[in-house]
């Protein structure tokens, strides 16, 4: 039986990996050890999993002792490269959460380490498994709108979900590479995958005018805030699972999960507008808004043979999209409109996509006709757009990916 270990035991690490491995995949693989800089949080793997999993004080010691086949990396984004490279050097395959990493240098280093090791890095892009996006992929592959000429893509994060990125480590660029890397990596990967093309050049603008020090009534954190009864963004960290995962583990590392979203410390954008040129010639306009009254996305592909467009709302806001939500519309050049009611999200994490990808990750997949399993290259291309956008905003210029990625 293959031996797995995991580094990073936060909400994603436990709910998305450790717990399901123990409870659903124990006939196929064994979780032989976990490591996190917060040992208390790492110990919660045994609590949630219901069986004792060894907690290590040191990542290298875990590798030496267990000699795992595969290492799962679910730490904060900026540490992914550190553990991915160590795991490869120890002769292990790696499963790493999105974004693969946060800078061009780190991405190149992962690629180099992978090539040297002869082992394999898989980047987890669970949205490729969402039934809705699978339908879009199949339609795009069928050539229903011909060659794609342009893409218009809007992703909206509600103030329920979007605000959460401004409470935690994500709000510091150094940790997450900004939302353009941390969050948009999902979106850029979808477009790269739908188009089966590579981005070559990026131009971007970004601002932060909603979160950050935009109001006087702010504090260090929600728990002790004097405005907690009136602030519409108050987060109760006593609510499970936040109490166990974060509040009760704070004394071990000082990770505060409910920091004020109006803090001066925040240095990432909350509104971005990005233009991308693809190798085969398609152009994309993309925007991410992290402070919307509702959550969802709209996308339109304009092709030589017509247009394909759809809208997808987060289930909490489905009512707002009545009539257009989950509907794929295709317009041909003869004036016909075809409407396809795409499959609804399934039960489970991220519309059922987590369950599907886990089967491939933990049992293995012999066939992958839609190319859903993502490798280092796909990881690099999706973050490449976000990182190039960061450079574009900083240096006020158009940025080409091959300035940073060689031989891809
Ligand atoms: N694919 C998805 O849909 C999805 C969803 C959520 C999170 N994620 C990804 O999962 C990862 C974890 O996110 P999360 O929401 O669980 O965050 P989290 O803050 O809950 O967990 C991060 C964990 O990393 C640990 N950590 C931080 N620095 C470390 C270090 N130097 N060494 C070892 N451990 C360290 C922290 O103690 C914490 O336990 C991120 O990369 C995120 O992008 C992916």
Characterize this entry briefly.
By secondary structure, the chain is α/β, with parallel strands linked by helices. 31% of the residues lie in helices and 23% in strands. Residues 7-13, 36-38, 41, 74-77, 79, 97-98, 124, 126, 182, 255, 350 line the site of nicotinamide-adenine-dinucleotide (NAD).
Summary keywords:
single chain, 408 residues, alpha/beta, Rossmann fold, Dihydrodipicolinate Reductase, domain 2, 2 domains, 9-stranded mixed β-sheet, 5-stranded parallel β-sheet, 13 helices, binds nicotinamide-adenine-dinucleotide
Task: Write up what this structure looks like.
The structure is a single chain. Helices cover 31% and strands 23% of the residues. It has 408 residues and is an alpha/beta fold. It folds into 2 domains: 123 residues, Rossmann fold (3-Layer(aba) Sandwich); 196 residues, Dihydrodipicolinate Reductase, domain 2, CATH 3.30.360.10. It has a 9-stranded mixed sheet with strand order 13-12-11-10-6-9-8-7-14. The longest helix is centred in the C-terminal third of the chain and has 20 residues. The two termini are 35 Å apart. The mean pLDDT is 96. Bound molecules: nicotinamide-adenine-dinucleotide.
């Amino acid at each position: 039986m293959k031996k797995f270990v995991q580094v990073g035991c936060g909400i994603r690490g436990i709910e998305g990996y450790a717990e399901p491995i123990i409870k659903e995949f124990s006939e196929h693989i064994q979780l032989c050890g976990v490591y996190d800089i917060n040992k208390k949080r790492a110990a919660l793997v045994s609590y949630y999993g219901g069986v004792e999993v060894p907690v290590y004080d040191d990542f290298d010691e875990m590798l030496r002792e267990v000699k795992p086949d595969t290492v799962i990396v679910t730490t904060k984004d900026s540490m992914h490269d550190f553990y991915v490279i160590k795991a490869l050097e120890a002769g292990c395959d790696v499963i790493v959460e999105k974004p693969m990493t946060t800078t061009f240098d780190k991405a190149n280093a992962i690629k180099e380490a992978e090539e040297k090791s002869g082992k394999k890095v898989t980047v987890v892009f669970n949205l490729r498994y969402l039934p809705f996006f699978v339908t879009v992929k199949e339609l795009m592959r069928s050539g229903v709108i011909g060659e794609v000429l342009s893409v218009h893509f809007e992703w909206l994060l509600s103030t329920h979900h979007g605000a959460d990125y401004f409470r935690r480590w994500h709000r510091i660029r150094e940790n997450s590479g900004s939302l353009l890397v941390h969050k948009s990596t999902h979106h850029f990967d979808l477009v790269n995958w739908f188009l089966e093309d590579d981005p070559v050049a990026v131009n971007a603008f970004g601002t932060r005018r909603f979160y950050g020090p935009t109001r006087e009534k702010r504090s260090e954190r929600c728990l002790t805030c004097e405005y907690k009864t009136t602030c519409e963004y108050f987060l109760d960290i006593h609510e499970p699972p936040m109490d166990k995962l974060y509040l009760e583990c704070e004394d071990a590392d000082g990770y505060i999960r409910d920091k004020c979203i109006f803090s001066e410390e925040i240095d990432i954008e909350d509104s971005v507008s990005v233009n991308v040129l693809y190798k085969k010639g398609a152009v994309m306009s993309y925007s991410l808004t992290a402070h919307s009254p509702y959550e969802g996305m709209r996308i339109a592909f304009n092709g030589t043979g017509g247009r394909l467009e759809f809208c997808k709302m987060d289930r909490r806001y489905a009512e707002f999209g009545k009539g257009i939500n989950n509907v794929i519309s295709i317009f041909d050049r003869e004036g016909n409109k075809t409407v396809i009611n795409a499959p609804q999200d399934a039960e489970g994490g991220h519309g059922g996509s987590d369950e599907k990808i886990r089967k491939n990750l933990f049992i293995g997949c012999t066939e992958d006709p839609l190319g859903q399993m993502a490798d280092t290259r796909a990881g690099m291309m999706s973050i490449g757009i976000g990182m190039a956008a960061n450079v574009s905003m900083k240096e006020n210029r158009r940025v080409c990916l091959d300035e940073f990625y060689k031989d891809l």
